[in-house]
Specification:
Largest sheet: 5 strands, antiparallel
Structural class: alpha+beta
Distance between the termini: 38 Å
Number of strands: 15
Order of helices and strands: HHEEEEEHHEEEEEEEEEE
Strand order of the largest sheet: 8-7-9-14-15
Low-confidence stretches: 260-269
CATH class: Alpha Beta
Number of helices: 4
CATH architecture: Alpha-Beta Complex
CATH topology: Creatine Amidinohydrolase
Shape: globular
């Protein structure tokens, strides 16, 4: 694990601020009639104007037939992660997960929010609430000396008490100079995870990202493209993520929403 010094965390704040600004803008634009490609175009413009690098664009997945083609992952309804922006038109009732990562001055920021488009079903509203609450709960639990397993158990318990499922195939990660660093940061805990546990210490920087499904949490590739991941049972999913630095008195969220509209995924529209 790579621990960051004060200067490195300051650079990560800059990356996190840009991610937050992009998500504030794009989430506010996620309205009926807008295409996912239009949302991505806004993000690409903002990232370019800031002189930053879009982390996702060009990433190679060994199973996929092409590098990831966009700055944002935009995943709709039963799509969990890695949705590819394009001609899809957003409709009232959709739940849209928007994931953004950038590199600024050599350091990365990564965050995601799920927003409701127009009027959504009550169970979808609750899904977004529970998933965002799980992320907030995790951040509140970050204290130096605590084991990650304690936090992961709280995330899992919060989700399962709501009658929903943690998606286990995808987890959070360390982050810094690279988008994906050690350690792996799961949103659940079981006996098989014990060897992967780690202690929270100042200077550790993590991308914490609970993904939650209304159904049983099993997933599959959407098609042969091998990028888009969907729930196997077709149930809606939600995804919230922050880049966080562990500090002596707790945690600092480096990708916090900076606009009023961006502060609540459920009410962003």
């Amino acid at each position: 694990m790579a621990y960051k010094n004060a200067r490195e965390i300051e650079n990560m704040r800059r990356a996190g601020a840009l991610v937050a600004d992009v998500l504030d803008e794009v989430c506010a634009l996620a309205q009926p009639g807008v295409t996912t490609g239009e949302l991505n175009a806004v993000a690409e413009r903002m990232i370019a104007e800031a002189g930053a690098e879009a982390l996702f664009k060009g990433v190679v997945n060994r199973a996929a037939h092409r590098p990831f083609p966009a700055a944002l992952c935009i995943s709709v309804n039963d799509e969990v992660v890695h949705g590819i922006p394009g001609d899809r038109v957003l409709r009232s009732g959709d739940a849209v997960s928007i994931d953004c990562g950038v590199r600024v001055a050599g350091f990365c920021g990564d965050a995601a929010r799920t927003v409701a488009v127009g009027e959504v079903a009550p169970e979808v509203t609750r899904l977004l609430e529970v998933t965002e609450e799980a992320l907030r709960l995790a951040v509140a639990q970050l204290q130096p000396g605590r084991m990650w397993s304690e936090v992961a158990r709280r995330i899992q318990s919060h989700v399962e008490m709501a009658g929903m499922s943690v998606i286990r195939d995808f987890v959070g990660h360390g982050i810094g100079r690279e988008m994906h660093e050690e350690p792996k940061v799961p949103n659940y805990w079981d006996g098989r995870s014990a060897k992967a546990d780690f202690r929270l210490e100042p200077g550790l920087t993590l991308a914490i990202e609970p993904m939650v499904a209304l159904g049983d949490g099993a997933v599959r590739y959407a098609d042969s493209d091998a990028w888009v991941i969907v729930t196997r049972d077709g149930s809606f999913a939600a995804h919230f993520e922050h880049t966080v630095a562990v500090v002596p008195d707790g945690a600092e969220v480096l990708t916090a929403a900076r606009s009023v509209a961006g502060k609540c995924g459920v009410a962003a529209n």
